[in-house]
Design a protein that fits this description.
The chain is an alpha/beta fold. The chain has helices at about 15-25, 45-50, 60-65, 80-90, 105-120, 135-145, 175-190, 285-300, 310-325; strands spanning about 5-10, 35-40, 55, 70-75, 95-100, 125, 150-160, 200-205, 210-220, 225-230, 235-245, 245-250, 260-265, 275-280. It folds into two domains: about 5-125, NAD(P)-binding Rossmann-like Domain (Rossmann fold, 3-Layer(aba) Sandwich); about 130-285 and about 315-325, Dihydrodipicolinate Reductase, domain 2, CATH 3.30.360. Helix content is about 30%, strand content about 25%. It is globular.
Length: about 325
């Protein structure tokens, strides 16, 4: 791919995920993207851009949205800003890569998706993990029934946060399910290739009104059962187990492959069956995401397995309603 195939990406924010994940991934994506960053904090964009080769800075989000040379934007902001920025980007004719979860409510998510459809731009939710070779390899094993018929999915995701963290603010899209449980919902849908037919949930609620810890049960077609827990008041856990009637797969950590991505595979249901440690390419999953976003734009449609996030949001909205009703 030569420079004429590059697209220009505007990044609307300079938070931790930008400086620690997205900009370092650009070393693998220079043939795909040129990048300009902006921040609402004076001087920050200039400082960030000065540290990364080939990255320039812009004065404001508005300047990026008004720049006709910019093809797409990446929105790393907190959930309460997603709708406004996505709609504005769509109206400006720019494709959108938006951090997960897509929005703090299903109503806002629908508005975002509709705006992108109306203006014929792509909306991709930034679930980077599902575009990594490890996730794709595991899904092929499931589809080829290497562990038999899928029966159980278990996802545990937790860490202990500061009690002043913005994620405990309901007005900003807070809550453990919205921030962490979204991964378990996404993984369950990804590996079953379907939507749940039954939902149950219960939570421990924080005084602000958000869920601090939540247990989620999902039933998928074929009676596949998913059990998801997420918490802001527990030790760090990030684990995925896929259990078939003739084997199982264990992925830990589940959503950050690291420099040496592996997973454990048992091809038998016998108690003492041997475990295989399967190694996968050590691709940067954020680079995988950026390359996939570029490929979708070039093709004129969002390519699988990326999603616009609306289906995941529908499930999460239902989960939250069930948990509140059982409160």
């Amino acid at each position: 791919m030569d420079a004429q195939n590059r697209l220009k990406l505007g990044i609307l924010g300079c938070g931790r995920i930008v400086t620690r994940r997205i900009l370092p991934a650009l070393s693998e994506c220079r043939q795909h993207w040129s990048v300009v960053v902006a921040s609402q904090r004076p001087g920050v964009a200039d400082e960030v851009a000065s540290k990364v080769e080939g990255v320039t800075s812009s004065d404001s989000y508005e300047a990026i949205l008004a720049d006709d040379s910019i093809d797409a934007v990446y929105i790393p902001a907190t959930g309460d800003e997603h709708r406004q920025l996505t709609v504005a980007a769509a109206q400006a004719g720019k494709h959108v890569l938006c951090e997960k979860p897509l929005a703090p409510s299903i109503e806002e998510a629908k508005e975002m998706a509709q705006a992108c459809r109306d203006h014929k731009v792509i909306l991709q939710e930034a679930f980077m993990w599902r575009l990594h070779p490890r996730a794709l390899r595991i899904r092929k094993l499931i589809e080829s029934k290497e562990i038999g018929n899928l029966r159980l999915i278990t996802v545990n995701f937790s860490f202990n946060i500061d009690r002043s963290d913005w994620r405990l603010n309901p007005d900003r899209g807070g809550g453990a399910m919205w921030d962490l449980g979204c991964y378990g919902v996404n993984a369950s849908r990804f590996f079953t290739g379907s939507e749940p037919t039954d939902i149950n949930a219960a939570a421990h609620w924080w005084p602000t009104g958000v869920d601090m810890t939540m247990r989620i049960g999902l039933t998928f077609p074929g009676e596949v059962q998913a059990q998801i827990d997420c918490s802001f008041e527990a030790p760090f856990r990030c684990r995925l187990e896929l259990v078939g009637d003739d084997g199982r797969i264990l992925v830990e950590p589940a959503f950050q492959p690291g420099e040496q991505p592996t997973f454990e595979l048992w091809r038998s249901a016998e108690r003492d069956s041997p475990v295989e440690v399967v190694s996968c390419p050590n691709d940067d999953q954020y680079a995988c995401q950026l390359k996939h976003f570029h490929r979708s734009i070039e093709n004129g449609e969002l390519l699988a397995p990326a999603e616009d996030g609306l289906k995941n949001m529908r499930v999460m909205d239902s989960i939250l309603k069930v948990a509140r009703e059982s409160r």
